[in-house]
Amino acid sequence: MTSYGRFFSHILFALVLFGQMLSISSGYCKTAEEKGLQIAREADWRDDGFGNYTAEMTMTLKNKQGKESKRSIRTKTLEVPGDGDKSLSIFDTPKDVRGTAFLTFSHKVGDDEQWLYLPALKRVKRINSKNKSGSFMGSEFAYEDIASQEVEKYTYKYTGKDEYHGQLCFVVESYPVDKKYSGYTKRVSWLDTKEYRLQKIEFYDRKKSLLKTLTVGDYQLYLEKFWRPDTMSMVNHQTGKSTVLNWTDYTFQTGLTDKDFNSTSLKRVR
Amino acid sequence: MFAENKSYLLLRFFFIAALFLFISSPANSSALEINGELSSQGFLFIHEGAWEDQEKQSVSLAAKVEMYHGFTDNLQFTMEAFYRIDSLDSERTHGDLRTAELIYFTDNWEISAGLGRVFWGATEFVHLVDIINQTDQVEALDGEEKLGQPMVHLTIPQSWGVVEGFIMPWFRERTFPGVKGRFRSPFAIDSNLTVYEDDEQHHTDLALRYSTTVADADLGIYYFNGTARDPVLLLSFDNTHLPVLYPYYEQIGQSGIDIQMVAGEWLFKAEALYRTGQSRSYAATTFGFECSLVGIGNTMMNLGLIGEYVFDDRDQGWLPTIYDNDIMAGLRLNVNDMDDSTVLIGIIRDTHYGSTILGIESSRRIGDSLRINLNASFFIDLDKEDPAFILAQDDFITIALIWYW
């Protein structure tokens, strides 16, 4: 390329860059889809760099008659640069499933990988991640609800702002990319405009009717950057059943690495 | 007798070593966990036993204690002790240390020593390639209960797969039902008459395994060299001149492979082995699929459809198996309710003899720490030529109540 040519390409590059900056700064020019994606990306970006954390969770299942059943689960999560998170869930109760563990490698594109460890048989079983619409341990949470929420797993549409519990929120619709296996046709999410934290999701089933509502509350700030909720409550409007997750003991940067998320460590997990 | 003493000595040494570690480790009560379970089990047989001394029902009580202690972040001890008292079969009144092992691990390797349990395999019905542990045959007819295997086990996980080495200095004999027990041949098996091809119980068995995940498949390949876990049963006479069977354990070499693969809502599973040392060399394979239907009929229930096939080319005259050429079909229902109710129905059909085994396993939780299991097996049209024929009179229903603490 001649020096003239190189100069021209620099100009062109600068113009393109300028054009991109223009489009970022002026939200009004965007389509609702672009705005929706931008909000999802911003929320994801704000949680970038957490590295790893452990937490404990109590899951309370409640049926229509008010009968309750509790499960206690410990979780370990590892952020994987450029891909979905790796996570490990270990059951402490009910006692008959004590020691059972789920290992998940989530991916931005394509199916997640999942393994189940059964302590009685010392057996690691591959499980089908296409069961994403299935219930997680009898709860109102489907596998796809508890899985790592990667931006790429949905397409988005911004529908406006709404006040929720005294906070101004973005309202964003999201549609699963994997339409065949997801249990939903649409999700409507409320994220507060200040911190981009998820406040509420309404789930619409395959027949497009309202199925469940998730409300997320009591956010705590960790390491001055990462928000985590203390409670998540899922109500099934069609069956009257509900599941509440209470999170405790969040610990960030615990030294977890890739080596804590493989079949070898799964077999001696505690 | 000497062998017996040696095993006790080894165990005693191990416990003293473990105890010493407990005492010398800094007091950290949070790192010690003890729990267990108590269970009662009742068997009800539909028919009178085929052989003398057998009865139509039996009850038993079992206890299990599990202990875990973390000495440091990368040194831990686990133990699982088990004992069962059976009302009928004195051979089923037995105990075992399922595990008692120290595990030390770093980021790059892991070593465990003691009594351990290792499972290899992929399929649901027949576990062909699982070989490290001996089967506790009196515990469960399906062979899924195993005895603790003394071993040193080295694991090296790498980005390209996991390499494992096993040194097994002591052999565990298979348990067999006694004269009053069901699920047995006309002649009882007398373990006191056990014969070994080589080195008695102190033959050092070795195994090497490589396993990895490639795209949507988990696969493992191994070589085992040592004492066969499944003995040949030979006829003899006891000192009252009555015919008895005695186990004969041969030296074998076995290569095996196991694969689990995901494809859409399908899971494909396969196992294969090649064994030398018991009559002529032979190969065996089992493979199949599991397809899951999620949220059937607009409920939370999941239904798994399982189809498998097994083919075994062994010398049936020397080492008979009931799984020589069989098709298996199963339905697994997960109700996904609060009580985690499950039902598994399976059919095994011999393609040659037409013999059929129907099995039902159902289970649910009661409250927080109790579980009830209701299982049944029916043996239908068993052919006299089929090795499974000895089970012809043994149709049963069993109920078990397990309390976890």
Describe this structure in words.
The complex is a heterodimer of chains A (270) and B (405). By secondary structure, chain A is α+β, with helices and mostly antiparallel strands. Helix content of chain A is 17%, strand content 43%. The radius of gyration of chain A is 21 Å and the shape is globular. With 405 residues, chain B is mainly β. Chain B has one helix at residues 2-24; strands spanning 32-45, 57-72, 75-86, 94-105, 110-116, 149-158, 161-168, 195-196, 205-214, 217-227, 232-237, 243-249, 251-263, 266-276, 282-293, 302-312, 325-334, 342-350, 356-366, 370-380, 396-404. The longest helix of chain B is centred in the N-terminal third of the chain and has 23 residues, at 2-24. The mean pLDDT of chain B is 92. The A-B interface holds A 61, 63, 67, 69-70, 93-98, 111, 113, 115, 121-131, 133-135, 137-138, 181, 183, 257, 259, 262-265, 268, 270 and B 35, 68, 70, 76, 103, 105, 107, 110, 117-119, 121, 144, 155, 157, 162, 211, 213, 216, 218, 260-262, 264-267, 292, 294-295, 300, 302, 336-340, 365, 368-369, 371, 402, 404-405.
Please render the helix and strand layout as text.
The complex is a heterodimer of chains A (270) and B (405).
Chain A: H1 3-25, H2 32-46, E1 52-62, E2 68-78, E3 86-93, E4 101-105, E5 113-118, E6 123-127, H3 143-146, E7 154-164, E8 167-176, E9 186-192, E10 198-204, E11 210-222, E12 226-236, E13 242-252, H4 263-266
Antiparallel strand pairs in A: 1-2, 1-13, 2-3, 3-4, 4-5, 5-6, 7-8, 8-9, 9-10, 10-11, 11-12, 12-13
Chain B: H1 2-24, E1 32-45, E2 57-72, E3 75-86, E4 94-105, E5 110-116, E6 149-158, E7 161-168, E8 195-196, E9 205-214, E10 217-227, E11 232-237, E12 243-249, E13 251-263, E14 266-276, E15 282-293, E16 302-312, E17 325-334, E18 342-350, E19 356-366, E20 370-380, E21 396-404
Parallel strand pairs in B: 8-12
Antiparallel strand pairs in B: 1-2, 1-21, 2-3, 3-4, 4-5, 5-6, 6-7, 7-9, 9-10, 10-13, 11-12, 13-14, 14-15, 15-16, 16-17, 17-18, 18-19, 19-20, 20-21
